[in-house]
Amino acid sequence: MTHPRRATAAEVIAARDPLRRIRVVTDPDPSGPPTALRTANPAWSCVGDDATHHVVFQDDVLIADGFFPYLEQVAAAVPGEAVAFYEGWEGRNSGVVRLGALTGAQWARAIDEHVPSLALMLPAEIAREYQKFAVTHGKGWPYDVVIQRYLKSREIPVRIAVPSTVDHDDVPSLAGNSTHGWRRATYFSERAVDVRTYDCAAFSVVPYYQYGEARCAVRYGTYWEHLDTDRYLRRVGLLDRCDTGLAEHDGPGLPAVVRRHVWLTAFATGAVVEGLTAAESDPAVADAVMDSLGPGGLCEEYTGAELMEMIPRIRALALTAFAAGRAARRAASPGPRATTADLAVTGGSAAFREQLARLLTDAGCAAVPGERPDPAARTVIHLADPHGRSDALPDLFADAERQGVRRLVLIASAAVYRGLTDEECTENAVSGRPPADAEARAWWDAEETCRRWGTRTGIPVQVVRIAEQVGPHAPLHGVLAGWMLRAWTRRPMELLNGRRHQIIDHRDMAGALAAILTAPVRSATYNVASVRYEENELAQLVTDTARATPWHPGTGADGAHPPLMSTALVTAETGWRPAADVHGGARAQAQWLACDTHDDVPGPKGTGSDG
Asked: Helix, strand, coil: what percent of the chain each, to 5?
């Protein structure tokens, strides 16, 4: 698939196949907005009548020698799977390739991220049906997101070649991806490898380095959590060893933040590899995959020339950290010690409450998530939803009384202040009088129902009113989520004059709750938020963390949007202060939105959602 401006380069790629089976498909609307999605439809539709598989190459690829005989072998061996022959060093799946290479695997299962689509093979029937899905569900989403959603809907597994047998040629992107910097394969072989096995490794923990941050993808049942690597290492009892190793390492100079995040990523990679195999990794392979670690994490911040100069120093640091991580895992006691949880997290979506329970446990408040409170729980945190099941609170109250719960914390919303004209709302702004706004009244009623129950039973009830939640699995009714959906689908944001916003990072939310739980029960209500944004500042956060998107002034005002909350009380009584990197939380939310299907969720006034 190509654009007419690069048709000559595409013809050169097509000529690489000795059997001349490659057809060059050009953009059907070359003067339109640059997008790979438009060309993907005809590219996936031109499947030969007698074909068993169909491969689509983008026009900026480098192909390994011997690739086409190798391709035929792979198609015959894995007839029902999607096969990606390239994974870039800037993606989450770069960590998958790195683990595969270091453990000797030739194939690895992709984790929950956009599908690497620079050179992708699908079974012929699946390829033929792609266009119908894209027309219905594409709606401006990036091509690699649409193909990921399509394959997920058809339950087609995606395997990634280790090493890659296709690489990315470093030419300017016509689709606007040049802002992502220098992009090459995590681990590329110039000659197609002899396939020893078609067994496909699947990893439940994947360290990766992306956007300058050390992160880990950790699988819990059907959900992936993407968390800071130092948090993961703390969970498994290895963070102190990691920090000590970094402090003792006297390597060549790198910026301190780069040094730490490279070390964290490589150390965690070593710990994961040691848990998978006791065999030593091939030194040449280790050198190759650590060569790509730094560029993958820093390609949006540094030029190619700057990265070339940094690679030897980063590789040396990463190899030392990798060895340290393996040694630390060997010396560690087997697994974290079990803890008894007397805290239950109920309500909300299953994914969000499970994530919140893990974050609370990290903060020292061991928690168990569930639709109903765990029988051992003596404290319950309930994520309220006034528009959810009508029996949710009565069932919660019955369980709490039966099980001897001693404290209930209701997670409410800043929406209770909607319709007020206060410059900044304290906790008593709606005390004693129901709000006039219908949405605010729904939240107020939920709070009052819990307070009346607490008065009747003598069980302390605390209400925590939170700002718009930001992070993976967060509810999607807020302005930020609506704008992110617009950014991903190439629709401009509509900004309303005078609005100001507060958001709460999912990690700060857990930290605030932990501070409230460990403090004596004093106030009955707290406001909690991480940071404030003006309207244009929030729009800029979207363009920084999702996709660069234009915005324009809207008409009128959003009278329903809640005013700002004062958070002075929770700080004064518990000592809690926001500490999370909200920019990172917003990016995590944007990536989660791209991985799951949320494009039909209506947004609030001012998001411009088409609903």
From this structure: 45, 20, 40
